[in-house]
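Lab notebook, bench 4. Continuing the backlog of folding jobs that were queued last week. Each job is logged with the same field layout so the records can be merged later without manual cleanup. Today's entry covers (pine wood nematode) hypothetical protein, a 512-residue chain. Filled in by technician R.K.

JOB TYPE: sequence-to-structure
TARGET: (pine wood nematode) hypothetical protein
LENGTH: 512
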Amino acid sequence: MGKGKKRKNKNNSNAVQKKLKFEQGTSNEVNQPNGGKHDLVVIDEVGNSDDEVYEDVKADPKLLEDSRDEGIQAAGSSTEKLDERGLESTDSGCSSDVNGLSETPSYKTQEENSRERGNNDVIELSEDDEDEDSVFVINDKHKYKHPEGPHPVLDPTIFDRIREYKAKFPKAFQHFEYQIDQHFIDNVQKDLTFWWKMEVRKNLLNVINQQFPGANLVVVGSTINGCGAMCSDMDLCCIIKDRFTNAASSERGFAIKCLRKMQKLFYRNRHAIKLDKLLVINAKVPILRITFLHPFEGLEVDLNVNNTAGINNSHLLHYYSRIDDRLPSLCLLIKHWAKKNGIGEAMSGTFNSYSLILLCIHFLQVAVQPPILPNLQECHAARFEYTEDVARLTVFDDLPPNYPDPRLNTSTVGELLIAFFDYYSKFDFENWAISIRRATVFPRAELADNNYRFKMYIEEPYDGLNTARCVTQPEKFELIMDAFKEARNAFLGKFRPNLRRIQVGKVFGGSD
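JOB STATUS: finished
OUTPUT FIELD FOLLOWS
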């Protein structure tokens, strides 16, 4: 992959539609096989906490057939759970079929670029390469503060030092870049996986339309934002408009009521849609978590109701990922690294996937010169303004390039990865907040006083809330900063560069 290239989508078939549109549609009747019994695992929220998750219990089918809207009260031990997107929910009633979710980003460019490198010599690590005294240990004297003004300043010497490091180990760095290319090719979501997920979405929508005619099931999150891995689960937003107001209600109670109805509806159709488990999670954004039997075994679906913020931010991230291939490649690396180092799980009080992507976008907007990513909410303001009318949002379009060519910055993904760790290992999270909406950092003093209960503030580009709001414990923040520092220290010393130094193996989510 090396230097960034602008992705161009190739449409060679009329069967591949270009746009994701949210249009009125109907669904086919679901044929339900008779006979057979399957014990579905069902969970529902109890208690008063908005952020509690309860262990699953075996469901009583008789209760599931009950007409009570309240659903099943399942008791169990609780563990804290925060929504991975960290967004507010919205409610509604009426909906439509999602047509056009048929084209995925073309990753042929990345694969071809990687193959063109040829067979590089594999550089194995040896104990002789490692000299602990050579590690550049970051302490307070190395931490720089962002100066007054609208933009942060990257350590001006970092890319010079990276170039020196690269010149010192040219063959090893070449192999390092090859590892990065292969990591992307091996882990990025393929077209076949996308179509497999779309089959699941279609099956679920057919069932939902039995009780909610015209409901719209929109794909959000990593499946559509261009930064998803092969092992990524699927997030869905069900748009249901209130029959009295014909608007998507933003009331949380409406969302929970709809999810309970869907829970019972899916159970009645469990054989037709190959369901394994159903779990209602009473998080800030309530979701119905669904797992499946063969042939969809291994896929986990999180379904929310009327969280239009999630649709808007997925739309925005989708277009950021199309500007330059270095963003999705860097995002996959960072998500893999975070997972392996214990800082990529919101439930444990660290980063969610959304926050990690925002960190990558911010870095490529303001921490490299010339910038690789523009501020899309500024240069395409009309297209990326927040809207409740999700029917007007489309994906896989070619945006007018009214921003600087990202190829003016010739840094490779390997160089950017090292600089990324350097940037955030020194970042003053206590005093500065990160914003891709402004394409800058801004003082946390501008926020409400209670924002300081969070150890860092990463602004959601539409509602302005903190996507890193689960990071509240000092020990978790320290764990995160230590991981940044250790990753930065894995390079620029006397050892050769290698992804294994930051615990990133070949396959994301598989055995390393």
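OBSERVATION: The chain has a mean pLDDT of 76.
SIGNED: R.K.
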